[in-house]
Amino acid sequence: MTISLSNRTAISSIIVVSAGILFFLFWLIYFRESSGDENSIDLTYLPAVNALLNSLSAMCLILGFLAIRKGKRKRHIKMMLGALTFSCLFLISYLTYHAFHGDTSFQGEGWIRTLYFFVLISHVLLSAIVLPLVLTTVYFAATGNFNMHPKIARITLPLWLYVSVTGVLVYLMLYHL
Hints:
Helices cover 79% and strands 0% of the residues. With 177 residues, the protein is mainly α. Helix 1 (5-30) runs antiparallel to helix 4 and helix 2 (46-69) packs antiparallel against helix 5.
């Protein structure tokens, strides 16, 4: 498995961009000084929007996987671009919510608290891995490298699906338990 110099440059760029996004998110949630204006804009609807976007992303991922298994390449492309679009919209919405609202604490107690933190921690750790994997998978597809694309996609798909589904679970546990 040889990766050309241009692919190495692209992958290096993907890693740098992904790290930048993740560091910004980490700073936004944990280190940014509050301006005191968090309540000036009502964004309480955004967590539900984020859960919807994660759900739509997961549905597109499943439909895209089924399409490629049936040899329906055009449908696969549409579904995967749909999943990518919903995930990008999620990221924008998530960053917006946390920029204005900050973090939300889980109020549950007992075994549900343990379950919540297991789901949350696995979701957060895997989302940090999924971001560069998704971008790399899309890069290989966009450049027509169908030798590397399916190899990376076999890793990316289950992780991306897990992150999308657990994002919905985190929302449900945080806001509806």
